[in-house]
Design a protein that fits this description.
By secondary structure, the protein is of the alpha+beta class. The chain has 4 helices and 11 strands. The chain is globular, with a radius of gyration of 16 Å.
């Protein structure tokens, strides 16, 4: 399985994940097929907000909600944003970060809703692909997670998420794997990563104070 751990540094879930996510920290229950179909129907009717008309401050409350973060960050004060096109459709996604620059998250915006793609924090590393973000996190000995979210036409598309958790002696534990909100196998998650292709450079960001 692709493992990229950043010791200097489970957001994108299944965000993203939807992973999708997006992120690590708390396990998400797989979405039911009925809820997934409802979400897809709602998402397909929500208009993508043109970049030039985007008021990022309108979405700050959604972007700061703890249940979106899936980490023990407590209150989060976002201080800056940037706009960059993740999937190459000509429509920018929204990138935000906090005062310390230790936390950064990526969102797609449709109608009045901002949806988490992925986030990075002190334990998480992001890897970028042509139209996707892969994230991996190492929280403690025996606990790690990874996932990826694909963005198409400025909307969350496919995603996978996995988590491994073992006790202090590394003798007993659990491994969970999900693809598009449904239970999957390790091999299916590995195939998901291979389909992403080769990593690319992160897009250049010009940060603007909120």
């Amino acid at each position: 399985m692709m493992k990229t751990y950043n010791n200097s540094l489970k957001t994108l879930a299944l965000a993203l994940l939807a992973m999708a996510t997006v992120g690590c920290g708390q396990k998400q229950a797989p979405a039911s097929s009925e809820s997934a179909e409802t979400a897809e129907s709602q998402d397909s009717t929500a208009a993508v907000v043109p970049t030039q008309k985007l008021d990022v401050k309108k979405y700050l409350e959604q972007m700061s909600e703890p249940d979106e973060l899936r980490l023990g960050l407590g209150d989060l004060e976002l201080s800056e944003y940037a706009l960059a096109d993740l999937d190459g459709d000509g429509q920018d996604e929204v990138w935000v970060r906090d005062l310390t620059h230790n936390y950064m998250a990526i969102y797609v915006v449709n109608g009045d809703t901002a949806q988490l793609v992925a986030y990075s924090d002190g334990s998480t590393e992001l890897t970028f692909y042509k139209n996707a973000v892969y994230y991996s996190a190492y929280y403690s000995p025996g606990r790690s997670c990874e996932g990826a979210t694909v963005v198409k036409n400025s909307r969350l598309a496919d995603s996978f998420w996995s988590e491994e958790f073992f006790d202090d002696e590394m003798e007993t534990g659990s491994e969970d794997y999900y693809v598009n909100g449904k239970e999957a196998t390790e091999e299916e998650c590995e195939q998901f990563v291979r389909r992403l292709g080769q990593p690319v450079d992160a897009p250049p960001l010009e940060w603007v104070r909120l």
